[in-house]
From TrEMBL:
<dbReference type="InterPro" id="IPR033132">
    <property type="entry name" value="GH_1_N_CS"/>
</dbReference>
<comment type="similarity">
    <text>Belongs to the glycosyl hydrolase 1 family.</text>
</comment>
<dbReference type="GO" id="GO:0008706">
    <property type="term" value="F:6-phospho-beta-glucosidase activity"/>
</dbReference>
<dbReference type="GO" id="GO:0005829">
    <property type="term" value="C:cytosol"/>
</dbReference>
<feature type="active site" description="Nucleophile">
    <location>
        <position position="371"/>
    </location>
</feature>
<dbReference type="Pfam" id="PF00232">
    <property type="entry name" value="Glyco_hydro_1"/>
</dbReference>
<dbReference type="InterPro" id="IPR001360">
    <property type="entry name" value="Glyco_hydro_1"/>
</dbReference>
<keyword id="KW-0378">Hydrolase</keyword>
<dbReference type="InterPro" id="IPR017853">
    <property type="entry name" value="GH"/>
</dbReference>
<dbReference type="GO" id="GO:0016052">
    <property type="term" value="P:carbohydrate catabolic process"/>
</dbReference>
<dbReference type="InterPro" id="IPR018120">
    <property type="entry name" value="Glyco_hydro_1_AS"/>
</dbReference>
<keyword id="KW-0326">Glycosidase</keyword>
<protein>
    <submittedName>
        <fullName>6-phospho-beta-glucosidase</fullName>
        <ecNumber>3.2.1.86</ecNumber>
    </submittedName>
</protein>
Length: 480
């Protein structure tokens, strides 16, 4: 059985829920510069500059679902579901509006202090991501974001301001959200744009090194400031399967899995894996790593591994004639043995258990599932109800899978924060209609709507799941 201290909850991100993008002295961030529509993906991938777009575009993060003004109402709904924890992120540019300031913005600190206090009032444990796809525009303009080693000191200043302010109130911190997404969407993940005269892998791995050193430094400072707290890393996870048992397919899947784990290898083991050092030599990539940084990485590994899981991935050496429309930034090919979501994502609960085992076998540190869910279109009935049985079916199957990992495989898992507690702006498409939440928010892809909150069927179902500590997962056995 799942232990009674297991942390059931949900997850979110500042840039996808808060809105109020210039209120409280907040500055602009990279995600505030990502428009809805055809320009979003090329900017996200770092191949088009955010400024190279026509005027009049819609920017979903500017209002999002206005959690900034609705947080008390929203947290009350989380408490009604019985949440034991809530994962959210802090917007860096709310604390240091340009990232270049010497002193933090008090209005930003007060907002998050109010959010944390409201959660604690309901005995909901805050799980705080320091940087969830969030870089102040000032640091992008001044330094080129994480291309520059100078970002490390700015991140340290930011993290230390949070640790000092929320000491004793936040037990679980996460340094960077889905840090490996830097490989796929460098602007979204890290505010990094790759210029025409730059070598992509040189830029990516330089930025990666600076982020990894910053994570280790934040871990070190957390232990100095609040030794009772824990620091986690965060992986966008999902096992790569070989498309067939052909050795060529097995090898490309192995390489893809190595690349996925690269960041966490450093954060959890404290050193670069040998294959990536070989890659640097082969591709003439130079990082200018110092002895002090090597020591910092070695001595400040994370306390736990957090990760997201939405789908497994499949690799094939020769993709000619094979469907590659997976809907996922991590790429791969369509797995013919699996069903798919409306947005093309594979649905693979067994893959969840496989992924959990792979992460545990590799690191043997406590795990924390901090994102898992399905994007779908929801219909509001005339009576205001939303019957999202497809979401319940997905979540139920995936909860069964991680329960098996706990109960049959003996893997220690700290908690589960599904994605998401409430409808929010989709990170990949910038949509509202691609809904993940247990709570519906009245808003469409063009930004129209009342922002009214409605409870979906999944709200009541998840309340029963939490009440029974994961024992009651059936679709029909819950009261609305």
């Amino acid at each position: 059985m799942i232990h009674k201290e297991f942390l059931w909850g949900g997850a979110s991100a500042a840039n996808q829920i808060e809105g109020a993008y210039l209120e409280g002295n907040k500055g602009l961030s990279n995600i505030d510069l990502l428009p809805y529509g055809e320009y979003r993906l090329p900017i996200a991938r770092g191949v088009r500059k955010y400024s190279d777009v026509p005027e009049g575009l819609y920017y979903p993060s500017h209002e999002a679902i206005d959690f900034y003004h609705h947080y008390k109402e929203d947290i009350a709904l989380l408490a009604e579901m019985g949440f034991k924890c809530f994962r959210f992120s802090i917007a860096w540019s709310r604390i240091f509006p340009t990232g270049l300031e010497d002193e933090p913005n008090e209005e930003g600190l007060l907002f998050y202090e109010s959010v944390i206090n409201e959660l604690l009032r309901y005995n909901i444990e805050p799980i705080v991501t320091i940087c969830h796809f969030d870089v102040p525009k000032g640091l992008m303009d001044e330094f080129g974001s994480w291309k520059s080693r100078r970002m490390i000191d700015r991140y340290e200043k930011y993290a230390v301001a949070l640790f000092n302010r929320f000491k004793g109130k936040v037990k679980y911190w996460i340094s960077f959200n889905e840090i490996n997404m830097l490989l796929h969407k460098p602007f979204t993940a890290a505010g990094v744009t790759i210029d025409e005269n730059e070598k992509r892998n040189q830029v990516i791995f330089t930025a990666a090194h600076h982020m990894l050193v910053a994570s280790a430094l934040a871990t070190k400072r957390l232990r100095e400031i609040d030794p009772d707290a824990q620091m986690g890393c965060m992986l966008a996870a999902g096992e790569y399967y070989p498309y067939s048992c052909a050795p060529e397919d097995v090898r490309v899947a192995q390489i893809a899995n190595q690349e996925t784990f690269f960041f966490i290898d450093v954060q959890a083991r404290g050193e670069y894996p040998r294959w990536v050092i070989q890659k640097f030599e082969k591709e003439n990539i130079h990082l200018n790593v110092t002895d002090e940084e090597i020591q910092l990485l070695k001595e400040n590994t994370v306390d736990y591994i957090s990760f997201s899981y939405y789908a497994s991935r499949t690799s094939k050496a020769n993709t000619e004639g094979v469907d590659t429309n997976t809907g996922n930034a991590a790429g791969g090919v369509v797995n013919p043995h699996l069903s798919r979501s409306e947005w093309g994502w594979m649905i693979d609960p067994i893959g969840f258990r496989i992924t959990i085992n792979s992460i545990w076998d590799r690191y043997q540190k406590p795990l924390f599932i901090v994102e898992n869910g399905i994007g779908a279109r929801d219909k509001v009935e005339v009576d205001g109800k939303i019957h999202d049985q497809y979401r319940i079916a997905y979540l139920s199957a995936h909860i069964r899978a991680f329960k098996e990992a706990i109960e049959e495989d003996g893997i220690p898992i700290l908690g589960y924060t599904l994605w998401s507690a409430i409808d929010l702006v989709s990170s990949s498409e910038g949509q509202m209609e691609k809904r993940y939440g247990l709570i519906y928010v009245d808003k469409d892809d063009q930004g129209n709507g009342s922002l009214k909150r409605l409870k979906k069927d999944s709200f009541y179902w998840y309340k029963k799941v939490i009440e029974t500590n994961g024992e009651e997962l059936e679709l029909d056995n819950f009261q609305k």
